[in-house]
Specification:
Elements lengths: L4 H6 L3 E7 L5 H12 L3 E7 L4 H10 L11 H8 L8 E5 L5 H10 L3 E4 L7 H14 L3 E3 L7 H11 L6 E10 L19 H4 L3 H18 L3 E9 L10 E8 L4 E7 L7 E9 L2 E6 L6 E5 L5 E3 L8 H5 L11 H21 L13 H19 L5 E2 L1
Parallel strand pairs: 1-2, 1-3, 3-4, 4-5, 6-9
Antiparallel strand pairs: 6-10, 7-8, 7-14, 8-9, 10-11, 11-12, 12-13
Helix pairs in contact: 2-11, 5-6, 6-12, 7-9, 9-12
Amino acid sequence: MELNPVISILGRRLRLAVIGGGPGSFIGAMHRQAARLDDRYEIVTGILSSDPEKSKNASLDLGMSPDRLYSSVQEMLDVEAFRKDGVDVVAIMTPNDSHYEYSIAALEHSFDVICDKPMTNTLAEAESLHKKVQESGLVFCLTHNYTGYPMVRQAKAMVEDGQLGTIRLVQVEYVQGGKADEEKPVPTVLPWKYDPARGGPSLVMGDIGTHAHNLTRFITGLELAEVSAEIGSIVPGRLIHDFAGALLRFENGARGNFWVTQAAAGVENCLRIRVSGTKGSLEWMQEFPQTLTFKPLHGPSQNRTPNGPGTLPLSAHSSRIVAGHPEGFHEGFANIYSDAAEAISARRSGKPVNPLALYFPNSWDGLLGVRFVNSVIESSNANGKWTKC
């Protein structure tokens, strides 16, 4: 087994530029740590703030070379595209309204792209970006990081292996309490999220609803056909959405429930899914990510753990250490980055890619996520009318 497939293929690490995620950014730190965890990338430059001086100071604090400090994204892309040691990949972790602009610009400079979710704010932008990715032949990775957890991948592999039979029922919820304070209907942290022009048409759907949607599609392998939804705000005085609930119809005839909110007082980060088929059911909860519960139709309940008995190849590919040692948010996020790195290295070298490294979310997943957000809003505006996804 190769110690570092990227270095084995290219003879070096991938050179990464980051856009966004400067001082005080939680998600920026997560992206940088995920990129570094498996030693696939070297972060060589970036624009970490819309303020040029803040950006340059932050870049120096992160150890970037003084000769790679830029005043704007456009300048960075223009210069790096012609350097012999220029960047290979651009990672975008800015407010939602700039994902489209920066992704298109990076692709036009022939850089592979890693982008935070949601892919775009509008369906038109999502369709345009997906088309651009398809035409370019470049790698586009969308960081729906929960699909990187070993037990989420074990769940997918068990479904693909037929251990659940035909999928009939799905329940998915993503419940948070960070926006439950009725005395602070518009928090001061990340105020751009509360501006529909920047954060998108639905805060709760763009922020966590797309995660729940992506997790459902990833594990089940099913596509949604229709949705009957209600969306709105629970906290009085809040103009943006903090709640969404929906009934789901899948293309294979399966039925499902979907519930997301950021206004459940006291709840931290409860992403949970239950999938039931003709042979059994699976349950997984993000706050206890080490355990996947399998309940066969005619047998006792069983727990699967990373690298434990019954581990399938996709899950083993996503686990770094022996059974009984916890892996969590950082490691799941890093799996997305590392798999993208293998795909990017293979594309650049013309060599075949490890099939197990191709399970990261891409622009098609991003497009379907934005389409789902639109369908939920459209259905809710029509008093829950069944709406195509």
